[in-house]
Design a protein that fits this description.
NAD(P)-bd_dom_sf; alpha/beta; NADP; two-stranded parallel ribbon; oxidoreductase; 16% strand; EC 1.1.1.133; 40% helix; dTDP-4-dehydrorhamnose reductase activity; 292 residues; 10 helices; Rossmann fold
């Protein structure tokens, strides 16, 4: 079976991906940061030289959006330089690359579902570095599938769903921004569909490389999303008192990084290319809320 190099293997998507790929029969070289520093050119070069890698899936990322405003060099190294080095090796050895990007590249003041042909723009370091990562992959000339995903949550690691659950356990009210509109996305759904693409690459005459939007449905604002999360947590017995979710704005909340006000994405291209229907994020709430 093909050997897949999986970076970011201890992240919330990476852990799901490792499980999916192993279940599908792939051999997986699962690397966390402690196993492989994707920002180290010598480490990357040596690994590719010594291992017969057939596919690279890059789920490694610097995702601390506010902290990135102060740690610009580190954020750039992981989100931009890392993909650049991986892509360089992929073109050298003719290896396909699947890379996870972000909806934050759509901070262009457009109030609609964004398509892959829309103008990209971003106003935070996280989005800027992820956009550089995309561009470096494109410039490399390697075979790539870039998936722009959004508001990822899942059973493993930290995410918005777990944060709302944990805060609700000890508070009677929460302030959550109402001027961020986007698509929550299940890490497990994303991993399963990446596994589907990996199989297509090896089992078909695959020629559908490119950039795709990938998210679950429907779109929702952060405030309404938080209300649904807390209501569901209460029904699961995880929150035992009333919690009011109050509306605020990004400006009032005072976060260091500026997020897109509307980063909704159309996944028509993904659905038509891979003959799938995007999944409903609510299906994955219970498993996330019940996880540590």
């Amino acid at each position: 079976m093909p050997l897949v190099l999986l970076t970011g293997a201890k992240g919330q998507v990476g852990l799901e991906l490792n499980q999916v790929l192993l279940e599908q029969g792939f051999k997986v070289l699962a690397c966390s940061h402690s196993d492989l520093d994707i920002t180290n050119e010598q480490e990357i070069s040596s690994l590719f030289e010594s291992s017969k890698i057939d596919l690279v899936i890059n789920s490694a990322a610097y995702t601390a959006v506010d902290k990135a405003e102060d740690e610009k060099e580190l954020c750039y190294a992981v989100n931009a330089l890392g993909p650049k080095l991986l892509a360089r090796e992929c073109i050298k050895y003719d290896i396909p690359l699947i890379h996870i990007s972000t909806d934050y590249v759509y901070d262009n003041n457009t109030q609609k579902e964004h398509t892959e042909n829309d103008e990209v723009a971003t106003h935070c370091e996280y989005g800027r570095t992820k956009l550089f990562g995309e561009r470096f992959i494109l410039e490399s000339g390697c075979k790539y599938v870039i998936l722009r995903s959004s508001w990822i949550f899942g059973r493993y690691g930290k995410n918005f769903v777990k944060a709302m659950r944990n805060l609700a356990k000890t508070r009677d009210s929460l302030k959550v921004v109402a001027d961020e509109l986007g698509n929550p996305t299940s890490a497990r759904a994303l991993a399963e569909d990446i596994g589907m693409i990996a199989n297509l690459i090896f089992k078909t005459d695959f020629d559908d490389f490119g950039i795709y939007n990938y998210c679950c449905t429907p779109a929702i604002n952060r405030n309404d999303f938080a209300k649904i999360i807390i209501d569901r947590a209460a029904k699961l017995g995880l929150v035992d008192h009333r919690v009011d979710v109050l509306m605020t704005t990004q400006k009032e909340f005072g976060a260091k990084a500026q997020r897109p006000n509307d980063s909704r994405m159309s996944c028509d291209k993904f659905e038509k290319t891979f003959n799938v229907k995007m999944r409903d994020w609510s299906y994955y709430l219970d498993e996330t809320l019940s996880a540590e």
